[in-house]
Structure formats: structure tokens, C-alpha cells
Amino acid sequence: DEAEQQRAEAFEAVRASVAAMVVLRQAMLDYVKKATGAVLKPSLEVISASEIVHSAYLVLKQLLARTQNVRPRYVLDPRLARARVVSSKSWLLDMLLNLVSNAVKFTAAGEICIRARYATDPATGRPCAVFEVRDTGRGVDPRAAPRLFGHFQQLQGDAGGTGLGLASVKHKATLLGGDAGFRNNADDPDFGGDGGPSGCTFFFRVPLEPPPP
């Protein structure tokens, strides 16, 4: 009934707020650990890519609940959904939520899409999982690219945030044996190259299995 639906929506709103707070707290803790020389170590387990994507999508829906101008969406590659992935569940969700939060801040209209796909790492030739968040915001000035994933670096016009989110994503992706990056959608062949939709795609890739020591 309507009352039950309202309770469910309220619960999801609280869940989204808590998740956002956890992401911020974890980014600060990770920075402090790194600054003091502590080594971050992921807790590895067999994980479900579907669960991570769906959890991030629920948070995205709540973050966009007050606007009618931006549509949330997600796409999950069936090959990745079936694949055995050994990684850190908490780290992957934290990384994906950082990208989601970043997209929400810079997208006033259009769509934000979470995408997870099976791929081959161009650096190692090994199977990997690629997690992406694509938005239809204003994109990123290429001149900002070299410092984009540095600590306390913020995109132009970013009035909120700590400047730690993207640095945390990059650092954790590297520790998991992968990497992170971004591309402007207008330069993406999937969108037809120049003249494509505005916005950009931030992503990270991690191996399906931990790299050998």
C-alpha cells in the first residue's frame, strides 16, 4: 500500500545518506593512513558484481530523488554477472560510490549511468572487470587531467567534497592490480566521436583474480 511504499522510500533515503557518509569517512581515513605511511590492505573474497552495481544504483536513485531532470540507469554485462570475481567488496562499492557522487554533483540534466562490464586489461592481457559511471554533465577540461586524481584536487566549480574521492579510487584500483581514469564522452568512439553527447565517463578496472605476487 501507499504507507508501505513511503516507509520503503524513507528507508532507502536513510541508506543512501549513510552510504554517502561512509564513503566520505573512509576517504579521510585512507588518506590519513597513506600520509602516515600505513599500508592499505584489501580484504579479498569472492564477490558478486551484480550486488555491487545494484547497491550503487539504489544510492544513485536516492541522490537523484529530488530532481526530475536526471535519470538514473545501470547496465550490467551478463558475462561479468556470471564471472568469478575475487576482490574487495567494500573497496569496490566505496570506489563506485565515489564516482557516483562525483557525477551527481556535475550533472544538472540528462542521465547518469552505472555500467559494469567484462573486458581485457590492455596492460596485462588478463580478464578484468570495468566499472564506469557516465554522466551528461559539462565534461572535464583536458588541462585538468594531469592533476585530476591527486589528493585535495577538485574540478572547477566544485563547491563541495574534500578532493579525496578520485585520489582514493585511483589508489585502491592500483592496490587491487588495476587502474582508474576518465574520458570525455565527445571523444568516445562509442558515442560517435566529436559531436557526441556532453559529459564524461569515470572508470576503474580491476582483475577478476588477484595478480600473482
UniProtKB/TrEMBL annotation:
<dbReference type="InterPro" id="IPR036890">
    <property type="entry name" value="HATPase_C_sf"/>
</dbReference>
<dbReference type="InterPro" id="IPR003594">
    <property type="entry name" value="HATPase_dom"/>
</dbReference>
<dbReference type="InterPro" id="IPR005467">
    <property type="entry name" value="His_kinase_dom"/>
</dbReference>
<keyword id="KW-0418">Kinase</keyword>
<dbReference type="GO" id="GO:0004673">
    <property type="term" value="F:protein histidine kinase activity"/>
</dbReference>
<dbReference type="Pfam" id="PF02518">
    <property type="entry name" value="HATPase_c"/>
</dbReference>
<protein>
    <recommendedName>
        <fullName>histidine kinase</fullName>
        <ecNumber>2.7.13.3</ecNumber>
    </recommendedName>
</protein>
<keyword id="KW-0808">Transferase</keyword>
<dbReference type="InterPro" id="IPR004358">
    <property type="entry name" value="Sig_transdc_His_kin-like_C"/>
</dbReference>
<feature type="domain" description="Histidine kinase">
    <location>
        <begin position="1"/>
        <end position="210"/>
    </location>
</feature>
